[in-house]
Amino acid sequence: MDTTIIGPGAVGTLLGGLLRLKGHDVTLRGKQPPREPGAVCRVVLPDRWLLVDGLRMQGPEDPVLPAEAILVTLGRQHVHAERRPDFSRLVGTEEAPIGFFNCDPAETERLAVPPQRLRRCLSLMSAVKLQDNDVELATPSSCIVFEKSKVLARLFQDLSSFGFKSMAVDDITPYANSLLVTQLLFLPVAMCNTTLGAFLSSPPGRDLAASILAEGFAAMERAGLALAPLPMMDPIELAMRLEKKPGSFEGAAAAPDRAYNSVLQSYLGDRPTEGALINHKIVDIASSAGLHLTWNWRILQKASRVSGLGFYRDPSDLLRALA
Question: What is the dihedral of CA 159, 165, 168, 173, to 10 degrees?
């Protein structure tokens, strides 16, 4: 299947590489011209690594190739910066479904994506890309949730041999709401230059995480936005475990963990980050519903500190700064 992926970051490169290994013709389109258009890509999985040849890599000025499916894996900050005419040229005028991953629905409306082509998707995984042509799947299990589409179902089914699960749903909105609550932890975890497991291994990290999640749940409830249980990375399950079994997190700091979230990867690569957009979204939802948030608002006020002064030493250091 001819597949175009807009956004050759961690998730886009990972999915593109794996689909190419299954025989699909894959084009990765980025906002910058590729440094090595014909380079071999290395994909690291939890149990093996694979070399991928034959990925077509394009920049924004290259001609749009015909595609049977288009996947948009741009971060929120990049989608937010897209202009409608430029995006229309990227996706062309064909009838191929356009799968938007982890995207604010307001952005697809702003970009005037044709409703008959739009399919929203969620990537439940930790994909890490810290250098060109090298991407790692850092979670032992991964899942893609997507709005029903025969084309996307065939495409994602081919990922099952790499341990991926896929789940088609009629309405992805409540699942996206749940993922947004989970992603509220991305920014504070990244501000400490660590992973979620290590962050939760300390009592201050668990206290802060529980408060942040509680505010997310309260905002969703007050705004009348439904949540659906995610097959992994589920915030309700995490919140219950933080409350009932907090000691179960304490051994995580000593275990090897490369599950750097997207915000931390942006910090480490000195690139624009989606972190503030995620936490600002929940603050906006709460504000529109007449609810004031404390912890998420304070985190937003400290978000620029990392770029100027560096990371916080640990979760207790961050908690003291917020309090």
Answer: -120
**Structure confidence at residue 314 as a pLDDT band (50, 70, 90):** very high
Bridge-based pairing of strands 127-131 and 134-137 is: antiparallel
C-alpha 55/C-alpha 64 separation (Å) is: 15
Tens-digit pLDDT profile for residues 253-274? 766 788 999 999 999 988 888 8
Angle at 140 between CA 216 and CA 267, to 5 degrees: 55
What is the DSSP secondary structure assignment for residue 56, as one 8-state letter? Answer: E
Query: Are both 153 and 51 inside the same structural domain?
Result: yes
User: 313 lies in which domain range?
Assistant: 178-322
The structure's pTM equals 0.94
pLDDT of residue 92: 79
Residues 286, 246 share a domain: yes
With contact defined as beta carbons under 8 Å apart, do 44 and 136 qualify? yes
SS3 state at 234: coil
